[in-house]
Design brief:
Shape: elongated
Number of domains: 2
Order of helices and strands: HHHHHHHHHHEHHEEEH
Strand content: 5-15%
Oligomer: single chain
Radius of gyration: 26 Å
Number of strands: 4
C-alpha cells in the first residue's frame, strides 16, 4: 500500500524515525535509539536502573535480578567493571529495535519492492525521506483558515453580512494566536475543532466546516463532524474564542 501510494503521487506514511529509515535503506547497520524510545515502561525502567547504577555491586545485583530479560536478548554476561553497564544497555537496545524485528523488516522491504520503489529508496534516500520520516510541520494561520469551509447564508441577507464580518475576525484571531506569545497555539485550535493536533496526510474526513451561532458568545465544536461554530460577536471575539477553547470539557486529553 505504501509503495502504490508513493509511486502514484500519493502520501507516504511519514511515521518512521530517521534512525529507522536510515537502517531500512542500508545507510547504517543498526538502529541507534535512546532508552526513552523504548515504549514498554517496565523495560525502560530496567534499562534506566542499569544505566544509572553507581557501583559494581549494584550493577551485579541488577544483572542477576533481571537475568531472564537480559538472557532473552542475549545480553546477560559476566560483568567485571562498572563501565560494562553501557555495553549491556546498548546491546539490549540493539536487540529490541533491530534483531528481534528482523523478519518484520524483511517483509516490509519485500512490500516496498512493489513497483521497484525499494530500489529507488536505496538509490535516493534523501529524496524519499520526507515521504517516510515523521516531521512536525509548522501549522500556519493560512493553512488553518483554508482547511475550514464556511457555511454562509444567502448573499445579500443580513446574516451573510454578519458572517462575513466574523470570518474576518476569525482570520485575525488565527494570526494573533500564531504570532503572539499566548497560552494557546494553532494546534490547540485544530484540536478543539477536530480532536487532532496535526492535519493528517490523508486529509480530514468529513471536510472541516465553519458555522455561525448567535445563541452563545463562545465557540462550540463537533469533533465527529469536524465542525467549528463561531460566535457572532461585535466585540471581544478573540477573548471569547480563547476562553471557550481553554475551558472546553476534555480539552488536552486526546
Amino acid at each position: 500500500m505504501v509503495a502504490m501510494s508513493i509511486v502514484h503521487g500519493g502520501p507516504g506514511p511519514r511515521c518512521f524515525s530517521e534512525n529507522f529509515y536510515h537502517y531500512l535503506v542500508g545507510k547504517v547497520k543498526t538502529i541507534e535509539a535512546p532508552i526513552a524510545d523504548v515504549p514498554d515502561p517496565d523495560l525502560r525502567n530496567v534499562l534506566l536502573e542499569i544505566k544509572n547504577a553507581t557501583t559494581l555491586e549494584e550493577l551485579l545485583e541488577l544483572n542477576d535480578k533481571h537475568a531472564s530479560m537480559l538472557q532473552t536478548a542475549g545480553c546477560y554476561r559476566c560483568l567485571r567493571t562498572l563501565e560494562d553497564k553501557e555495553q549491556v544497555v546498548n546491546d539490549y537496545i540493539q536487540w529490541y529495535f533491530t534483531y528481534r524485528n528482523h523478519v518484520s523488516f524483511q517483509r516490509f522491504k519485500d512490500g516496498l519492492a512493489t513497483l521497484n520503489l525499494f530500489n529507488a529508496l536505496e538509490q535516493h534516500p534523501s529524496l524519499f525521506q520526507p515521504y517516510m520520516v515523521y516531521s512536525a510541520e509548522d501549522l500556519k494561520a493560512e493553512t488553518l483558515e483554508a482547511l475550514f469551509r464556511p457555511q454562509m447564508s444567502p448573499t445579500g441577507s443580513s446574516n451573510r453580512q454578519e458572517e462575513e464580518r466574523v470570518l474576518g475576525y476569525w482570520l485575525d484571531y488565527l494570526i494573533a494566536v500564531k504570532e503572539e506569545a499566548s497560552a494557546l497555539s494553532l494546534q490547540d485550535v485544530l484540536m478543539f475543532a477536530t480532536g487532532l493536533k496535526e492535519i493528517p496526510a490523508a486529509k480530514l474526513t468529513p471536510q472541516p466546516q465553519l458555522t455561525f451561532q448567535k445563541n452563545s458568545r463562545f465557540p462550540e465544536a463537533n469533533v465527529c463532524l469536524n465542525t467549528l461554530k463561531l460566535p457572532i460577536l461585535y466585540e471581544m471575539f478573540e477573548e471569547a474564542m480563547s476562553y471557550g477553547i481553554r475551558n472546553s470539557p476534555g480539552f488536552g486529553l486526546f
